[in-house]
Each structure stands twice: as C-alpha cells, then as structure tokens.
C-alpha cells in the first residue's frame, strides 16, 4: 500500500466511523502531522476523496467535509437502494457462518453507529463476490455516515434501525431472500424519509 493509499484508507475510515463532522476543514498540515506523513500524499488523497464526492474543495480554503443537505441525502439513499439490494440478493444463499457471525457482532458492538452500520451491511453483502459493487457501496456508506449519526443519535432512529437490522439478519439466516430484500427496502426508505423531513425543516 502506497503512502497515498494509506492516507486515503485512514481518512475513509474516519469518515465511515463518523469522526469527521460535516463542515470540518481538513488542513493538509494537520492531516500530515496526525498521520505522520508529508503533505504531498495528503494532497493527493484529499483530491481522490473529493473525486469520489466524499470531500469538497473550496477555492483558497482547502478541503471540507460536505455539510448535510436534502439533495445529498436523496442521492445517497437512491444509490444505496439501487446497489445494496442487488448485492444482498446475490449474497443471501452464499452467506457463511463467518459472515453471519460478523453481522451479529456488529449488532452487539458499541463502537459507534456509523462504523457498526457499515460493518453489519458489509458482512451481509461480501458473499455476493462483487468487489466493485462492494467498493461502490463502501463509498456510499462513507458519504452517508454523518446522516446515519444524525438519524440514530438526534432523530431517534436508533431503535428502529436496530430492530430492522436484527430482522434482516434473521431473514438472512433463514436464506429468505424476498423477506431480506423487503426489510432492506423498509430500512433504507424509513431512514431517508426521516432525514429528509428533518433537513427540510432545518
């Protein structure tokens, strides 16, 4: 892994864990010091993340974590609804004991809602064996992480999300693809609807 790849990986992890707040400026010097690298790989990694839509550059100001908007919420969830059911449908009959155990562990883990949300979904999608598809969904989960934090922490969605995850995992254990796909649709639609309503008021 090159230094640029490592910096990109570290920053992607911070986005997935919801550690980079919307509107936060990512200064090249600060990131370089924090990760113990020079500014050159940091600059390239920030540009890569911006090209993926995970950061934005402002003229003469640098890189920022995008603020939460209705338009971004709608786009992120539309893309999730387009891609994730396809991965889940392919994966259900191929899920291993390890995959199911990792998904269950994510449900039991208190490490943080955005991170555990991604680890849960990744465990259920990985068996689809679509590497590009999974990589695309990882980018979407990094983009949606601050929305997940808002939904679960501020908008009271944690209980619904936990219940939907548990029911989804149960359907996957039973290899019931139609039930799993129906639950995934409900899960994504409920979160989007709640978030859009909140952001429109805000």
Give the SSE map:
Elements: H1 3-16, E1 25-26, H2 28-35, H3 39-51, E2 56-58, E3 62-64, H4 70-91, H5 97-108, H6 113-125, H7 131-154, H8 158-173, H9 177-201
Antiparallel strand pairs: 1-3, 2-3
Helix pairs in contact: 1-3, 1-7, 2-3, 4-7, 4-9, 5-6, 5-8, 6-7, 8-9
Description:
The structure is a single chain. By secondary structure, the protein is mainly alpha-helical. Helix content is 73%, strand content 4%. It contains nine helices and three strands. It has helices at residues 3-16, 28-35, 39-51, 70-91, 97-108, 113-125, 131-154, 158-173, 177-201, and strands spanning 25-26, 56-58, 62-64. It has a three-stranded antiparallel sheet. A hairpin with a 3-residue loop joins strand 2 (56-58) and strand 3 (62-64). Helix 4 packs across helix 7, helix 4 (70-91) packs antiparallel against helix 9 and helix 5 packs antiparallel against helix 8 (158-173). The termini are far apart.
């Amino acid at each position: 892994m090159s230094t640029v790849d490592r910096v990109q990986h570290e920053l992607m992890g911070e986005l997935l864990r919801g550690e980079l707040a919307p509107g936060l400026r990512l200064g090249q010097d600060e990131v370089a010091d924090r990760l113990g690298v020079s500014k050159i790989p940091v600059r390239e990694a920030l540009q890569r993340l911006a090209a993926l839509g995970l950061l934005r550059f402002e003229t003469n100001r640098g890189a920022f974590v995008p603020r939460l908007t209705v338009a971004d919420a709608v786009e992120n969830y539309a893309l999730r609804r387009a891609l994730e059911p396809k991965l889940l449908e392919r994966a259900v009959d191929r899920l291993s004991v390890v995959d199911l155990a990792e998904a269950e562990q994510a449900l039991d883990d208190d490490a943080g809602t955005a991170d555990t949300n991604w680890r849960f979904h990744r465990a259920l999608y990985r068996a689809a064996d679509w590497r590009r598809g999974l990589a695309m969904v990882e980018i979407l989960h990094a983009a949606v992480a601050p929305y997940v934090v808002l939904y679960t922490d501020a908008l009271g969605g944690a209980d619904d999300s936990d219940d939907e995850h548990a029911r989804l995992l149960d359907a996957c254990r039973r290899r019931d693809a139609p039930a799993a796909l129906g639950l995934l649709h409900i899960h994504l639609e409920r979160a989007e609807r709640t978030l859009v309503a909140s952001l429109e008021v805000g």
